[in-house]
Amino acid sequence: MLDFFKQMSLVRRFEEKAGQMYGMGLIGGFCHLYIGQEAVAVGLQSALKKGDNIITGYRAHGHAIITGATPKSVMAELTGRAAGIAKGKGGSMHMFDPKAGFFGGHGIVGAQVPLGTGLGFAAKYKGTDNVVLTYFGDGAANQARFMKPSIWPSFGTCRLFM
Ligand SMILES: Cc1ncc(C[n+]2csc(CCOP(=O)(O)OP(=O)(O)O)c2C)c(N)n1
Hints:
The model has no long low-confidence stretch (mean pLDDT 91). The chain has a single domain (2-155), classed as 3-Layer(aba) Sandwich (Rossmann fold). It contains 6 helices and 2 strands; from the N terminus they run H-H-E-H-H-H-E-H. The chain has helices spanning 2-23, 38-45, 61-66, 71-78, 112-125, 144-147; strands at 53-55, 132-134. Helix 1 packs across helix 2 (38-45). It is globular, with a radius of gyration of 16 Å. A two-stranded parallel sheet has the order 1-2. 38% of the residues lie in helices and 4% in strands. It is mainly α. Thiamine diphosphate (TPP) is lined by residues 57, 59, 107-109, 136-140.
């Protein structure tokens, strides 16, 4: 429990600093903070095993840190540096580290839903029991990518949790 608390505090402190730097004009583009959602990333990540993947929308800093990125590499990404988790080319919304099981970071609201489903099918076709967590907000739940009922039957053993 103490470790969970440390991870949550790390994300909170990081985001407070990122918000401060954004206000000072040191971070270009958008900057979507993960403040208030720390327990979601920490709790769910703690239930995953090797080979499980996650994917999310643009509110991605916390997930990057919790899947193993150093705060330094996330801050480097925010400030557009080559040492960033996405080589400084993604910025706040497009953190990306597939080796750590983290498939972004997506600026298009709801884009992560079909992509996450595809990752789930990949795990299924490979015959693994790995799972994929697709995170999205209530805004994304109103997108056709999520809503279209005709694709639901083909989900098979892919289960959808909200
Ligand atoms: C396809 C698409 N439509 C609209 C937008 C503009 N947009 C940016 S954030 C946002 C709201 C998303 O809300 P939610 O998914 O609940 O995420 P939250 O910011 O609340 O975490 C919208 C509509 C977008 N980025 N992509």
